[in-house]
Amino acid sequence: MEITVSGKEPPGWNAFLASNRGTFHQSTFNVDYLQPLGFEPLYFAAEEGSRRVGQLLAFKTAPLHAASLGTAFEAFLPLGKRMFPTLQEIYGPVAESEGAYEALVSRLAGEARKTGASISIAKPHPLRDYPQAFEKSGFSSRQSATFIIDLSKTEQELWNGVSASARRKVTRAASDGAIARIAAGNDDAEKYFAIVDENRKRNGLRPYSRKSQF
Asked: Which residue, 25, 62, 138, 157, could crosslink 153 as a Cys pair with Cβ 3.0–4.6 Å?
């Protein structure tokens, strides 16, 4: 198995994702969104003979890069990337086999060691996860945003289990006339993202690209 690493998109990148449960975060659409903001793509492609068997999209960045966009700290990002080189990847690798998956994770770790970079984010593929592949390459795991809810409890019991601050926010939103429902179409989605954009601008951050959300 041969793994190539390049800053340029290999042929057939998105097509491979489409046939192997790839996500937006590993696609060139994410590159289109992040590259203008200073993130530099790094494509890892695993091949057996002339056949693609796995791939991983990572980004060269700096610590706290995403949090600094649109703020005064953004001016220091070029210097930050040189002084504190950082790699990050989300929901990769995308691979046909565990062997290809492990080889890509190992190459990611090797690339970080070779360039003296740290790896700030490494989120495994949500549907094809081989945790041991990351552990073999020296990663430690940490669970985040994991919720286990016992739906056999009553509505009141579930409500009592919500933090007091969260309950206040829900109650205040309800008293202001907010109604929660499932989006029925693109118009509803546009209204939701308009609120997201407004909040990001209010906090001095650049709004997300619409392409990244649909």
From this structure: 157
Q: CB burial class (10 A; 0-12, 13-18, 19+) of residue 104?
A: buried
Task: Output 8 or 185, whichever has higher pLDDT.
Answer: 8
Give the position of tokens 């190539």: 4
212: confidence class by pLDDT, cuts 50, 70, 90: very low
Q: Is 119 left (phi over 0), alpha (psi -120 to 50) or beta?
A: beta
Cα 76 to Cα 81: distance, rounded to the nearest angstrom: 9
Q: Is the pTM of this model over 0.70?
A: no
Please report, to the nearest 10 degrees, the dihedral formed by the alpha carbons of residues 73, 75, 80, 81 taken in order.
130
- d(Cα 139, Cα 148) in Å, to the nearest integer? 25
Give the rounded distance of the alpha carbon of 147 from its chain centre: 19
Phi, psi (deg, nearest 5) at residue 100? -65, -40
- Using CA atoms in the order 136, 102, 56, 117, what is the torsion angle rounded to 10 degrees? 30
Backbone angles phi, psi at 115, to 5 degrees: -95, 0
Q: Is the separation of the CB atoms in 120 and 63 below 8 Å?
A: yes
**Domains identified in the chain and CATH numbers:** 2-136 (3.40.630.30), 155-212 (no CATH)
Highest-confidence segment of 18-22, 27-31, 70-74, 194-198 = 27-31
Q: Which amino acid is at 71?
A: T
